[in-house]
Each structure stands twice: as structure tokens, then as C-alpha cells.
Amino acid sequence: MSESEDPHVVVTSERLQSVIEALSYASVDEFESCLSLLERSGELRDEFSELETAFSIFVRELGEAKSELNRTLAQQEAINRELEAKLETIEVQQAAIRELSTPIIEVWASVLCLPVVGIVDSQRSAEMTETLLETIVSKQARMAIVDITGIDVMDTKTADHFIKMARAVRLLGAECIISGINPGIAQTLTHIGVDLTGIRTLRSLRDALQLYLRETEQLVVHQHSQLARKLSSET
Amino acid sequence: MEQELPIIQIRNCLLVSIQTELHDRLALDLQASLMERVRNVNARGVILDVSAVEVIDSYITRILNDIGKSVRFMGAECFIVGIRPAVAMTLIEMGVELDSVNTALNLDLALERLELLQ
Lengths: 235, 118
Prior knowledge:
heterodimer; A: alpha/beta; Transcription Regulator spoIIAA; 2 domains; five-stranded mixed sheet; 8 helices; rod-shaped; B: alpha/beta; 47% helix; globular
């Protein structure tokens, strides 16, 4: 019993060395080699072997926790990848929707038509205006017909967007006609007091086209009569 | 080095093709020399081509409106042609109006409309 009362524990430097080595294995995640080292030196039964057993339990727990963590991390990463792929799809679809939201049709020689369907917010209206203006310039169109038959309700902001669009078209030197205003929108526009001077509004796309054709016809007749007058004055 | 915009006469029209950025001094000089030329050659129309101008601010807009009004007082018509889409959008967003001048998509259409007006 005198030995057990001795407060000192005698350990050979070899065993100490092997424990240190085992711990250094553990520090670089080599849990298997660490455990085998600890168990080999723990074959002897004394006070120091208790410490070694404690170490080996700790290392085993640590190893399990670590592998659990790695598994969770891998799962998270997979989820993240999936989410990123989904976000990418959403972006592509948004671009597609944006493109679809501004279909510009050349309905007649130098007449463009922009049918508007759905909800118009400020971003969409800005994009519509930009696309319309650029198309007018690239095609040198004299007239743009904005057909809003597909819009049921219009608030102040949306109305303002359309008026701005029409003004911008006029600045380029083309004419902007808004067609297909339904009774509800007409009442809203009157109620909020939108200034529609200089912007022609017609019942339908058909009426707008007819107006254009009538005007070009008049232009041709006028030019012909001018030419005839010039010729007759020369002779 | 004083820069000056060339004013070209085609038949009874005056054409100014602005190929540089319009700054205030240049615009004011243009206004003065343009008025003089309108009187001298008895022009019926004035066409300003701004297709190369990337920035038109509110002051330039005012000068352009002034040119339009004065030209009209002298019995001619003023056309601004080739306003860029971006410039048009900016002007509308700023809420400035180019209401004293006519606008046309290109020089050809402006000449056509001037012919009709005579």
C-alpha cells in the first residue's frame, strides 16, 4: 500500500514519447494511428495507463465528432450547390421573361407595335422604353403604337410611365400612339388628370394602322400635287 | 483655341451637324451665329443634327428651345434630328421639355417635313 500512497508516478520516457507521438497524430486528424499507439502502450496496468485510456476515449470521441462534422459540412455544401444552381435557373428565367415582356413587332413599313400585357412596374417600364426607343432608332420607324389592350387596371404610376414613354418617342422624332385603352383605364386617367396633349390615343391597333396609312397617303398625294405644280410653273 | 460649329447651307435650309460634346459656350455661340445666318440667307428651315451628342443637360435644352423659338419668330422652322434614346430618356426623366422645336428621326425625314411645310 506504500506504493499507492506515493504521490509520484514513474513512467519510462518511451511510454511518454509514444503518448506524445499519439497526440501529435491526433492533432493532424490521424485518429486511427493515434488510437492504435495509445492502446499498444496501454497494455500495462498502472496509474499512467489510466491517463492513456482517458486519452484514447477522448480521441475516439473527437474522431467521431470530427467525422460527423465533416459529413454535415459535405451535406451543407451539396445543399448550397443545389441552391446556387436554382438561383442560376431563376436568373436565366428572369432574363427570358424580360425579353418576352417587350415584344416589338414591325407591323408595317416603319411602324412598330408594342403590345403590353401583364403588370407594369418601374423596372419593366424603363426596359420597355429603352427597347422601344432603340428599336425606333435602329429601324428608323416613324410611328410606334403602344397597345395596352392587355392591361385591365392602371394606377397613377403606370400611367405616368406610359406618358413618359410616349414623350420620349416624340423626342426622337417619331410619333407615339396609345391604343386599346379600356373604359376603366380611361376613367382612371381622367380622374388623376393626366395630360395627354400631343399623344394620340385610338381605340385599337387597327384604327392606329388605318390612321398611319391615311396619313402616308395624304403625304404622297401632297408631294405629287407639289411636284405637278412645280412642273406646270416651269413649263 | 476657339471652337466653332460649321453651319452648312442646303438650298434654303441651314444644317448644323454637331460632332462634339455641346458645352454651354459652344451652344451660345451657335445660337448667335445661327440667327445671323438665318437672316442673311433668308433660310426657311434650320436643322440641328445631335446624333453624336451623348449628353444634353437642362441648360442646353433651354438654349435649343430658345433657338427654336427665335427661328420661328424669323419665319423659319427648327428641327432637332437624331436624339439618342439614352438622351431622350434622360430628358424625360428630368422633366425638361423640348417643346419649341420639332424633332425628326433623321435628316432625310426633317427635310421631307420642311418641304411639306413650305
